[in-house]
Structure formats: structure tokens, C-alpha cells
Amino acid sequence: MITKKLLLLGEIGVGKTSLVRRLVHDEMKADYIATMGVDLYTYRIEADSPDGPMTVELVIWDLDGNYGESIFQHIYSRGASAAMIIGDAMRQSTLLHMVKLADSFQNAMPSRSFAFIVNKTDLLGAPDASILPEPLRDARQPLIWTSALTALNVVPAFKRISDDIVRREH
Predict the structure, then answer these.
(1) Domain with 61 in it
(2) Angle at 37 between CA 25 and CA 61, to 5 degrees
(3) Strands 38-49 and 113-119, how do they pair?
(4) DSSP-assigned beta bridge partners for residue 20
(5) Which one of 44, 94, 117, 150 is most buried, counting C-beta atoms within 10 A?
(6) Cα–Cα distances in angstroms (integers) from residue 109 to residues 17, 29, 83, 106, 140, in the given order
(7) Residues 21-62: pLDDT tens digits?
(8) What pTM was computed for the model?
(9) CA 54: distance to chain centroid?
């Protein structure tokens, strides 16, 4: 088993905490309480490595959305193996901000894995690429549509980033 640090990045209210709580506790709370600073979670998942299945213990850092791109100068981001950059399917500004966060993440942590997560797709009825700003439509990074409410693609999103972490380190 290996242990890896994963950052959850995105603006306030995009559903970072809801996604990780759905993953770890398989629950969704209707009451919204903003994360202040950082909340830590752990989750074990089987990743696919070039040598076969491998257990990865993710130490998931659910970061306060107020930090924005300045998070990369903060101690919270040090030692991260990857990031999930999360936006709200119903708030275009959060989708645009995902691109800025990705650029900052790549500059601060070159060669580290990240994925774009568009959350709250249950409010769309179905994933709809027409809502994405052009830079997200054209991105080479994985883009995963999720819903913390319905659990749509929550486990697969964390599995995909875990697979990528393991592949990059072999």
C-alpha cells in the first residue's frame, strides 16, 4: 500500500466537501457549512498500476475555496501528488476559475496529476458539454461529470486520479 496526498481545489460552494463525504461516508448532507482552512479525509482505493492492482490510501485535503490560486504558496499544498479541480455545473464563473487553478497548479507542481471535475450535474439532468467554457472543452486533462447528490461518477473520479498517480510514479 502507498499513501498519497490529494488536493480538492475549487471555489466556495462547488461541492468539494460533498464529493469527499459521498466518497468516504456515502452520505450527502443538505445543510451547507463552508470549510474553514482545511478538512482531512482518508480513503483506500484499488488503483491500476503497470505492475497490477495496488492499494492507494488517499489523504484528501479538502481546502477552503477562499484561497484561490494563492493556495500554492501555502503549506497545505506541499507534497501533493495530485489535485481534483472542481467546478459547479450551474455556475459558469466556477468553471472558468477551474482553468486558472489548473494553470497555477501546473506552474507550482509540474508533472503532477490533476483532473477537472464538473459537479452538480444532477441539476442539469444530464452532462452537457455546451455549458463548458472553451478552455475546458479543449483541455487535454480528464474531465469528469459528477453529482455528490446522486453519487454519479464519484468513486470513478477518485479511482481515475489514483490510477494516474500510480502510473506517473512508476
Answers:
(1) 2-168
(2) 45
(3) unpaired
(4) none
(5) 117
(6) 23, 33, 10, 5, 17
(7) 999 999 987 776 666 567 899 999 999 998 999 999 999 999
(8) 0.90
(9) 21
